[in-house]
């Protein structure tokens, strides 16, 4: 078993970085199982012993004070939240049922609100996240009854700029109508702070929420352009959380940001990977780590109130040296392994990437800066 003390020593010995100010809410995204496409669960095996180990690492090694816990199962969400709460972590409680319509979403979020209020009454510091990028992952706002169709519609807007604004306005109107009903249903059952994790293409009515939340990946913009994008969310005049950002683990991934995963396009009939352009990417943990460090620098300058790196682990994209290295298209801070690996039955069943150490160092500096203030 990897020892926490060893992790801490390595973190403290990592390369020096520029001094940071202090983003107050510093965290990572923690996945407990999302049902992508309605039939692919992102975490098959949920084990509370593993969750406990991870939350200890997130709090004491990565020096987070917050964790965004996302998943569909309310049981898994509540168990993970209680464990995180025992370590003094603030919870961004993110129930997320994909590929359902307005009515099913309202029903699901109503049930989740009851669960969240119970956790809040137990003394857990909790913010309810009322969905994530609804117009892409759910039905009723954007054209298309599947993720693939909605994603293709979104991409096509860049090819038809003359029609894009009208189509986006229509989708955003539908989105805000849905979010109004969802937030109303949640607030009937949950009395704590509420936010939503928006895509940058979504124009959200933030009067419905207490905290502005945006998934704000950098996609090759200049520093000034990225910072300018942040400022448009400050105009609302509410606390601003960047709910997720991150980078895949191959050369060239930084320029693609949140679309870095799309370089992998499946497997051929022989089981060989198919990559965009027919070129196998070159693994690069340093590109991933540099990206996150650079973005945190910009978010710090941009005066955000919270930031969560996506994602702590992603076991369905395992690392391999002799097969397909799915970890290259993963945003995770740690490498997971296939069930055939000797790592599988260990706690932890993962090993750190370069980003793990870099993030721990950055968050430690931010924590120290807060203490000095």
Describe this structure in words.
This protein is an alpha/beta fold and 373 residues long. The protein is built from 10 helices and 14 strands. The strands form 4 sheets. The chain has an 8-stranded parallel sheet, covered by helices on one side. A two-stranded antiparallel ribbon has the order 2-3. Residues 1-19 have low confidence and may be disordered.
Keywords:
single chain, alpha/beta, eight-stranded parallel β-sheet, two-stranded antiparallel sheet
Strand order of the largest sheet: 7-6-5-4-1-12-9-8
- Rounded to the nearest angstrom, the radius of gyration is 20 Å
> Would you list the SSEs in sequence order as H and E?
HEEEHEHEHEHHHEEHEEEHEEEH
Report helical residue fraction: 25-40%
**Sheet having the most strands:** 8 strands, parallel
Class per helix and strand makeup? alpha/beta
Average pLDDT number: 92
- Uncertain residue ranges: 1-19
Question: In whole angstroms, how far apart are the ends?
Answer: 37 Å
Quantity of strands, as a count: 14
């Amino acid at each position: 078993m990897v020892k926490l003390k060893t992790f801490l020593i390595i973190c403290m010995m990592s390369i020096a970085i520029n001094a940071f100010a202090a983003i107050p809410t510093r965290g990572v995204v923690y996945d407990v199982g999302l049902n992508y496409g309605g039939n692919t669960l992102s975490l098959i095996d949920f084990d509370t012993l593993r969750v406990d180990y991870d939350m200890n690492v997130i709090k004491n090694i990565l020096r987070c004070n917050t964790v965004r816990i996302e998943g569909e199962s309310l049981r898994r969400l509540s168990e993970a939240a209680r464990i995180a709460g025992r370590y003094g972590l603030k919870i961004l409680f993110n129930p997320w049922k994909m590929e359902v319509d307005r009515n099913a979403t309202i029903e699901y979020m109503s049930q989740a609100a009851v669960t969240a209020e119970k956790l809040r009454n137990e003394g857990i510091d909790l913010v309810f996240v009322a969905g994530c990028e609804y117009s892409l992952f759910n039905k009723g706002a954007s054209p298309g009854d599947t993720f693939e169709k909605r994603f293709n519609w979104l991409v096509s807007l860049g090819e038809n700029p003359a029609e894009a604004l009208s189509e986006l306005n229509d989708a955003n109107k539908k989105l805000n109508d849905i979010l109004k009903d969802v937030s109303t249903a949640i607030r009937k059952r949950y009395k704590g702070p509420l936010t939503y994790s928006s895509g940058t293409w979504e124009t959200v009515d933030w009067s419905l929420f207490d905290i502005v939340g945006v998934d704000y990946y950098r996609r090759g913009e200049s520093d000034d352009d990225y910072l300018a994008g942040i400022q448009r969310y400050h105009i609302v005049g509410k606390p601003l959380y960047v709910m997720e950002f991150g980078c895949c683990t191959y050369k060239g991934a930084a320029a693609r940001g949140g679309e870095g995963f799309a370089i992998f396009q499946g497997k051929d009939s022989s089981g060989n990977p198919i990559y965009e352009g027919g070129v196998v990417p070159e693994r690069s943990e340093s590109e991933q780590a540099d990206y996150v460090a650079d973005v945190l620098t910009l978010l710090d300058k941009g005066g955000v109130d919270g930031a969560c790196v996506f994602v702590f682990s992603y076991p369905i994209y395992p690392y391999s040296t002799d097969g397909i290295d799915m970890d290259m298209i993963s945003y995770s801070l740690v490498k997971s392994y296939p069930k055939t690996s000797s790592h599988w039955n260990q706690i932890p069943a993962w090993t750190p990437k370069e980003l793990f150490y870099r993030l721990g160092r950055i968050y430690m500096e931010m924590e120290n800066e807060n203490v000095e203030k």
